[in-house]
Amino acid sequence: MVGQLSKNDRIEDLHTAIKTLIDEVVSSREEMVKASKREASIAMSRSVAHDIRSPLAALNVLAKISTDLPEDQRHILQNATERITDIANNLLESHRDTSNVDELKPELLSGLIETVISEKRLQFSSQKNVSIQFSLDSISFGIFSKIRKSEFKRVISNLIDNAVESLEGSGTVTVEIFRGGGKNQIVIKDTGVGIPAHVLTKLGKEEVTFGKSSNTSGHGLGVLNAVKTIRSWGGELDFNSHPSGRGTEAFITLPDVVAPDWFLNELNLSRTTDVVVLDDERSIHSIWGSRLDKRTNIRHAYSPDEFSQMVEASSAGTTFLCDFELLGHKQTGADLIRKLGIEDRSILVTSRFEDDNVVEDCLDLKIKLLPKNLVSVVPIIQ
Known about the structure:
single chain; alpha/beta; Heat Shock Protein 90; Rossmann fold; 3 domains; 12 helices; 14 strands; 20% strand; globular
């Protein structure tokens, strides 16, 4: 019990520290704005103050319910804190010339969306009649566009917030992703109250807002900034709404790009019937067990020692599906792959696909990476 309280206390302390940091950053930026009297800086400060609510809400819920964090909750916590850091950095640097900073890179849209949706499900978990769904299949899962991932997640977060608010306590938000004609399209639709036609035609302008509750900013900055951001990437953001109560649809269209070298487009097991799965989460083992052909001989390792023994006893054609982060162990999956010399037969399956250091490990080892939240939809050839 003492250990559990200690973990809860650490999470509470983390949440408090982050909130204090953000408050100080916002306060400092407001002082800068007063001194410079630049309206663009004022708009940025208001936008950031609005944006930090969602990740902080997710942290707050985690702090209340967590006595021991499994990987999915650690992943949510990690991504929420990273989003807050990105927002704070953008706030501090908004007065500088950043035209040559953060060159656009190909990013996995489905993985980023899944990360935000996990955060949103936690944030709105107290609203029992609200459902947030993500429609994804083996055709749409491996879609990339050149974007800035922190800004992309902010756009998706704000659009889902707007959709949930329109439900007024009951309904469904569905996110879908499609590819076609050199374009990628993300659709966020809700079953909410809809937007009146006279507002819909002006949506995306700062002074236009509709249906905001009293505890929100009401400046329409989320949509305005989203439109500007998406257009800066060569895309478009459009809306369609049915004010009769059939909801609203937001359409994000972005140019499609080729997947980077590290990404696993499909899992080819046509030349082997032996697979070893290394992961400390039993749920991942269950998913692999349900997805692989019954003719496949699957062995399950939960620790580095157990995995090493299985590698020694394996045949030359065995495929190894390895987690990166192993709870309670200093060695990572990448470390084990390198140490055991099984690069040519290994795939890294991890929630840390957004971590540049993890991607660099994969490129260095010449192995593929599969985001763990896409295990259930990756195409498998058997």
